[in-house]
Structure formats: structure tokens, C-alpha cells
Design brief:
- The chain is α/β, with parallel strands linked by helices and 527 residues long.
- Helices cover 35% and strands 24% of the residues.
- It folds into 2 domains: 257 residues, Aldehyde Dehydrogenase, Chain A, domain 1 (3-Layer(aba) Sandwich), CATH 3.40.605; 185 residues, 3-Layer(aba) Sandwich (Aldehyde Dehydrogenase, Chain A, domain 2).
- The strands form 7 sheets. Strands 18-19-20-17-16-22-23 form a 7-stranded mixed β-sheet, with helices on both faces. A 6-stranded mixed β-sheet has the order 13-12-11-14-15-25, with helices on both faces.
- The chain is built from 14 helices and 26 strands.
- The termini are far apart.
- Belongs to the aldehyde dehydrogenase family.
Length: 527
Amino acid sequence: MLYGSTLVYPYGSSIPNLYLSRGRCILRQVFFGLPSMLQRPYSLDVSAQLLRTQAFIDGRWVSAASTFPVLDPATGEEIAKVSDCGTMEAQDAVNAACKAFHLWKNHTAKERSILLRKWFDLINQHKEDLAKLITAECGKPMKESIGEMTYSASFLEWFSEEARRVYGDIVAPSAKDRKILLLKQPVGVASIITPWNFPSAMITRKVGAALAVGCTVVVKPAEDTPLSALALAELSVQAGIPPGVFNVVPCSREKTPAVGELLCTDPLVAKISFTGSTATGKILLRHAAGTVKRVSMELGGHAPFIVFDSADVDKAVAGAMVSKFRNTGQTCVCSNRFLVQSGIHDAFMEKLAKAMDAELKFGHGSEPATTQGPLINTRAAEKVENQIADAVAQGAVIVRGGKRLEGSFMQPTLLSNVNTDMQCMREETFGPLIPVVKFNTEQEALAIANASPVGLAGYFYSRDISQIWRVAEQMEVGMVGVNEGLISTTETSFGGIKQSGFGREGSKYGIDEYLEIKYMCLGGLSL
């Protein structure tokens, strides 16, 4: 089957190994039973400075009383042990951020801009090592990890520029003896709670905006992927970000509920920004309600992908491939529900199946040929497996794939004869599954697309300009890709409607999430 593995010390011991060589940490793994291209040793070779395993609080590296393991999802083997922070460490981080806030907010916008730019430059200098960490702890192919680091760095660059463009207003008064000003000021300490599927970019997209306007942050990274967050902390030090401005408190799955609750209820925290599931978002909203905090939520999606008869089939197939199989289907904007009009259905299915055969290669993310890595853990693979079984039981036909491999690997799967009652059409998949529903009319497709409680992203392909305007305006989502399957970019707003959350990240609007508007009336003037 797909894999088995062991980690070896340089001198032949058979226990997990991280060792130093000329200032770099090297993890060596030897794979057995893999496809031929993977039957050789794999080394994670990164700068020792970037492989951090302690919490980062108030500018210091802090050990907790216990640790938790970080695993390579491709092999199940341990990469590192990381400090398992509890509520005490989280409280220390909040206190440090609160103390630092009163200094950081008084830095000029230009000073903050310069420091964010230095951080951006350092990320670019260490892009390859940071990408290796993502591949090791997240499993995504190295090419995609490099792409994430470019994306991650771009938010620091963008918000370093936006820092100097936070403008208030002067309003014409109704009385002659007064002046009216609207000032924009930082909200304060922000709790940043991020997911595992983009362990670097989801941090910088939030933190870049927060730091640009003068907020300070406490980051709680996902328990599966803390190494990327800690590497960013190391580079923040090198960039000159003052102590307490950027804090990271990693913790295990067991301690996450208590740490998350503290970060959402502590009176010193003014703002919460969360990316993750809708179910978890609802829990955090309940926590935040007690102290009426500012909240941004980027929650689950269930993106429709519609192909109309007027579409260019080849472009639609290419869009489906990039939209569905990026990060092995593990992105919140991945297409989940594929709706193909009857006149073009058979041609689309034939070409999509051929594209899957030709382009998708699964294996360890460190291998250059790999396009499909593992899912993050076995629970994720079980979910996809169950959705396929449910669909087949209700009459769906497996056109490609359909099988669970060892560990958390899943074959990329294409299903036909799908209906809207199937589980894969009702629940977000987060895996490499394409279920295709055949439809007849535009109204039918829109009804299916909008019949979801979430509305993050949606996609459709058409060459009919009137149809493009109609459908784009009627789709109940926060982001629409028209004849495009890859829509995320720094300059545009990212966010959803319905139960996909509220607030926007990126773009010129992302910075507003960390600002309060203060009305100032200056009266008693002699004119």
C-alpha cells in the first residue's frame, strides 16, 4: 500500500531524529512500500533558527510544563515536540500584548510600515525553508507550499503600505462654532485563531492588518501546524517587531477549548479573528458575547461550481482541476458541488476524467512530482470515504478513484449520477472528491447552488455575457469566480455571507476590521 516509514538517527538508531548540521535542523525519514519515486530517504533540512518549539510570549521563547507532538500527515511520524500551552501561558500572552499595545499604537504609521516591510523581506529570504515546514506539518506539495509563502508574505507587504493610508474624516458641522472630526484608532489586543490548511498565510492575512494600525496580537495556531507560526515569530524578532506585539501560544487538541475560551473571554482582548469551521465559530461567538468583543469570522464553505452549456469546456475543466485539487481539496474555497448543464455534461466528464489521469500524482509533498499529498489526518480521510460510500449507496457512479489508501491518503475521486440528497452535496468535503450533478436550466442550477446555509465562494463558467451578470449577482456567496477557478489574491476582499461568517480580510477593507471610529466634536470656537 501507500506507505510505511521510520525515522533514523545518523548513527543508525531507529527513533525519531532532529539533528544539527552547520546551523540547520535535519529530519531524515526513510519510506518503505511507497511508489518507486518515493522509495528513498527524505530529509527536512531547515535553518535551526526557524525550527522553534517553544511558545513565544513578550519577546521570549517560553517552555510549557508539557509538550505535544507534531506529526507528518504523510507518514504519521513525529517531526517535533512543541510546548503545550495552557490558560496560564495564554493569559501571560494577553497581558504582554496589552502592555505592548500602549507603546505600539504610539509608533507612527511609517515606523510600523517599515517594520512590516522588514518582516516581509525576511520571509522572502527564507521562503524555501518556511515552505519545507509547511509541507512537513501540513502535507501539501512543496510547489504549493512555496506558493503559500509568496501569498503569506504578500499580506505583510500589502498592509505595510496600507498602514500609511488609514484616513479619518473632517465633516462639515451644522453649527458655526465647532469642528467635527472622525478619527480611526486601533481596537486593542486581538486574538488570532488560525487553521492548519494555510498555516502561514492565515496568520499574516490577519496579523498584517492588525499590526499595521497599531493593534497587538496573540496567535493560537492549529494544533496540527504550530511550526509555521513559530517560525514567523522568529522572523518577527529579526525584523525588529517589539516584544509583546506578536505572541504565539501553541497547544494540543486537548487544551485548545480552554485556551480558546480564555482568548475569547478575557476582558483585555478587544478583538477576535477566527478562520475555521462554522461549528467552532459559533462556540467562539458565544464566548465573545459575554464581553461584546469585535469579531471577524471566516467559516466553512460549500462552493458550487457551475458549468453552463455556453462554457468553454477545456477552460472549465482546467478551472475545476485547480479549484478542487489544490491542497488535495483542503481549502475553504474549494469547489464541492459540481453542477454541469445537460448539453455539455458528457464532454465535460470525459475531459475531466482524462485530466485527472494525466495531472494528479499522489505521494509525499517533498517529492517534485507530487500534486496530491495526504489529508491532514485519518479522520479527514474517513469523512471523504464515508461521503463516497453514501453517494454510491444512493446510486452515484464512481468514474475515477473512490478508494481509501493507507493512512490519510485518498484517491482523487470523480462521481457521476449524483443527486442533491447525497451527503457530499449537503456537507463540506475538505478532500479530493468531485460529485457531479446534471441540470437543465439556469434557474435549476441557481436553486441548487443557493440551497446551502453557507456562502463563502462560488464559481461558474459561461460565455454568455448576459448570463454572467445574472448568475454572478444571484449567487449567494461572498466571492464569485467567473471563468476562473483560483480567485484568492491579496488586493481583494476575502470573506463570506450566511453561516460562512462576517468581516473581510485582505484588500483595503481588511484593515478596517482592526479599527474603531471615534467622533470628536471641537466646540466653543470663535470664528
